[in-house]
């Protein structure tokens, strides 16, 4: 239970999360204007981080030194120190006087010895180059201002965990801020959260590239109001060249007939007209057109979850199971309601569409990005025919592949 105490100056609230208990000054509204930032909704995010960091520690088989670059109340760093096995030094940083004060109180109250820093995040990253195995970047809004210093700072075989809450830019509600912050064009389609997360990874990959560092995405997800990336960092010029060649590209989309295609390469040929209906295509990118989930890593996290007693366990299991299924599936997904709208029919059940696709020999994976989405390599025209037949209850032995 949370408790509230009144001190002479300010009301202090106590919050329990995971295995720790922390004090925070009471505030009316969760916002960057709060004296010390704590968002109870991010418990889910912090719980997933515990699993991801433990899985990563097991993968690299050594004790890990961690930096929580934007510490706030210190809850994340204190939980990392207390709840993870094989942790070395944990550093927590924040620019704010009050945050540092509470990080000190909270680490002492939980008997956790943390290295406290009060530096601008870019300065800390530049000063502590090569010192951390894991850097957690959880700023207000966009992480874009910190990615260059992060690329300079992180060592090979380390992991970076990055949160972005500026989803309206990444998803294309506003185009210009995305161009300014991520040097990429978003596209407001039914799969805009996937495009957004790919723009974010692509921006990190292109920025890290100048330091000959490249990425292996372990887990990436879009949840609530934010996007979160867990990326392993590797280092070599050859590896970086190959990774950028293989993974950076664009997505072209037809808003009339819902055709879409991903293209790999930075300076590459992009079609202007939809090959299906002739409509002008819209383009998103540059973005990460490669794998965004590592199935083995995520399955390891699911295994780890079995040994934890977390309030968010059920929700985490649902997310991780879907992300694991999503691994190795095609880029973008189809929204069955959107297809039905284009066809002017009522939407069939998602499970029926999935079953039919599988029966016809196509993959049909659900996606954590949308409860109405299916990832499949099936051609849009075949998919439309399947959706149409299911919704109009057409009973035939149609060979869908013949309509190509
Ligand atoms: C979103 S909060 C961090 C929340 C925390 N990670 C958690 O899980 O509760 C962002 C924090 O970054 C701090 N901050 C903002 N700009 C900063 C900068 N340039 N360098 C270092 N800290 C900064 C703020 O004072 C705030 O405490």
Task: Give structural notes.
The protein contains 14 helices and 16 strands. The chain is an alpha/beta fold and about 400 residues long. The chain has a seven-stranded mixed sheet, with helices on both faces. β4, α2 and β5 (about 85-95) form a beta-alpha-beta unit. It is globular, with a radius of gyration of 23 Å. The model is unreliable at about 1-10 (pLDDT under 50). The structure holds S-adenosylmethionine.
Summed up:
By secondary structure, the protein is of the alpha/beta class.
- Rg on CA atoms, Å: 23 Å
- CATH domain topology of the largest domain: Rossmann fold
Per DSSP, the total helix count is: 14
**Distinct ligands, ions and cofactors found in the model:** S-adenosylmethionine
Name the strands of the widest sheet in spatial order: 6-5-4-7-8-10-9
Structural class: alpha/beta
Low-confidence stretches: 1-8
Q: What is the CATH-assigned architecture of the largest domain?
A: 3-Layer(aba) Sandwich
Fraction of residues in helix: 25-40%
CATH class of the largest domain: Alpha Beta
Count of strand segments: 16
Shape: globular
Draw up the topology in text:
Elements: E1 3-6, E2 11-17, E3 20-25, H1 43-60, E4 64-68, H2 75-83, E5 87-93, H3 97-109, E6 115-117, H4 121-127, E7 134-137, H5 147-153, E8 158-164, H6 167-170, H7 175-182, H8 192-209, E9 213-223, E10 226-235, H9 237-247, E11 248-253, E12 260-264, E13 282-288, H10 295-305, H11 313-326, E14 334-335, H12 336-343, H13 350-359, E15 365-367, E16 370-375, H14 380-392
Parallel strand pairs: 4-5, 4-7, 5-6, 7-8
Antiparallel strand pairs: 1-2, 2-3, 8-10, 9-10, 11-12, 11-13, 14-16, 15-16
């Amino acid at each position: 239970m949370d408790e509230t105490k009144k001190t002479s100056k300010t009301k202090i609230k106590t919050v329990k999360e995971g295995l720790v208990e922390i004090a925070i000054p009471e505030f009316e509204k969760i916002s960057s204007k709060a004296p010390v930032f704590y968002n109870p909704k991010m418990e889910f995010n912090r719980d997933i981080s515990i699993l991801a960091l433990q899985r990563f520690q097991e993968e690299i088989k050594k004790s890990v030194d961690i930096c929580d670059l934007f510490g706030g109340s210190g809850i994340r760093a204190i939980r990392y120190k207390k709840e993870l096995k094989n942790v070395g030094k944990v550093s927590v940083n924040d620019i704010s006087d009050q945050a540092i004060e509470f990080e000190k109180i909270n680490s002492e109250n939980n008997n956790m010895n943390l290295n406290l820093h009060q530096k601008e995040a870019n300065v800390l990253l530049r000063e502590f180059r090569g010192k951390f195995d894991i850097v957690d970047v959880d700023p207000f809004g966009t992480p874009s201002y910190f990615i260059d210093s992060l690329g300079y700072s992180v060592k090979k075989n380390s992991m970076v965990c990055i949160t972005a809450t500026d989803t309206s830019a990444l998803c294309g509600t506003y185009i210009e801020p995305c161009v300014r912050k991520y040097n990429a064009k978003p596209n407001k389609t039914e799969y805009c959260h996937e495009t957004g997360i790919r723009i974010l990874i692509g921006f990190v990959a292109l920025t890290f590239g100048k330091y000959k560092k490249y990425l292996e995405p372990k887990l990436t997800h879009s949840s609530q109001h934010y996007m979160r990336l867990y990326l392993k960092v590797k280092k070599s010029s050859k590896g970086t060249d190959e990774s950028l060649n293989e993974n950076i590209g664009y997505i072209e989309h037809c808003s009339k007939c819902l055709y879409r295609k991903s293209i790999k390469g930075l300076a590459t040929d992009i079609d202007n007209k939809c090959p299906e209906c002739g409509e002008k295509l819209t383009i998103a990118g540059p973005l990460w057109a490669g794998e965004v989930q590592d199935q083995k890593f995520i399955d390891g996290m699911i295994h780890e979850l079995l040994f934890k007693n977390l309030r968010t366990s059920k929700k985490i299991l649902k997310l991780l199971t879907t992300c694991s299924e999503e691994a190795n599936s095609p880029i973008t997904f189809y929204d069955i309601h959107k297809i039905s709208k284009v066809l002017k029919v009522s939407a069939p059940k998602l499970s029926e569409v999935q079953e039919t696709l599988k029966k016809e020999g196509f993959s049909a994976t659900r996606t954590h990005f949308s409860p109405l989405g299916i990832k499949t390599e099936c051609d849009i025209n075949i998919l439309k025919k399947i959706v149409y037949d299911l919704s109009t209850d057409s009973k035939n032995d149609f060979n869908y592949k013949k309509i190509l």
